[in-house]
Amino acid sequence: MFPLLVLVVLCTSCLAETNDFYSFSNAVGGGSGTSFSTTGEGRITGVRLWEISSAYITGLQLRYGYAWTPIVGREVGNPQELELHDDETIVQVSGKFHTNYIYQLFFVTSEGRFLMAGNPTQSSFNMYPEHSNAELKLLSGRFNSAGITSLGAHWGLVYLNENITITP
Predict the structure, then answer these.
(1) Distances from the Cα of 31 to the Cα of 26, 34, 65, 105, 138, angstroms
(2) Could you give the CA distance from residue 137 to residue 37 in angstroms, rounded to a whole number?
(3) Burial of 2 from C-beta contacts in 10 A (0-12 / 13-18 / 19+)
(4) Domain of 140: which CATH number?
(5) 61 near 69, Cβ under 8 Å?
(6) Where do the H-state alpha helices sit in 1-150?
(7) In this structure, is residue 92 part of a structural domain?
(8) pLDDT number for residue 160
(9) Domain extent for 96
(10) Is 3 inside any structural domain?
(11) Closest CA to 31 of 117, 107, 102
(12) What's the total number of domains in the chain?
């Protein structure tokens, strides 16, 4: 009876859906202020960043599909913007931080394109997925009335709801 139970448990665990491609890049920065998490439907298709020139990142915004998330932080001047191509993904988030703010952000795509904003000063960070097929799914962190104070990255697979027609 015991061997049968072990076999059933093993078979059940093999059938269970797992997300082995999920990973989290620990947050950098001091972390004061209000917490945030970007969310949306589907894949990230755009990034906007606001900065105080020669200072720090004041705001950020992601686009999922055709919808932009609410702005995290505050808008200062015109944003730096990157629109992703079809099937292009974000595979790296890097930059500079200190105990008070995120000073620079650098987003790199699967096609080698990038968006960079902010001041290249203070301590460096580099975030990327643990699995080669994963992509950026969302950002989390904290912000205050002046800017972004901490940032973490969540990586994984994005499953798109596509209509598939099978013809005989």
Answers:
(1) 12, 9, 29, 16, 17
(2) 11
(3) exposed
(4) 2.100.10.30
(5) yes
(6) 2-15
(7) yes
(8) 72
(9) 18-156
(10) no
(11) 102
(12) 1
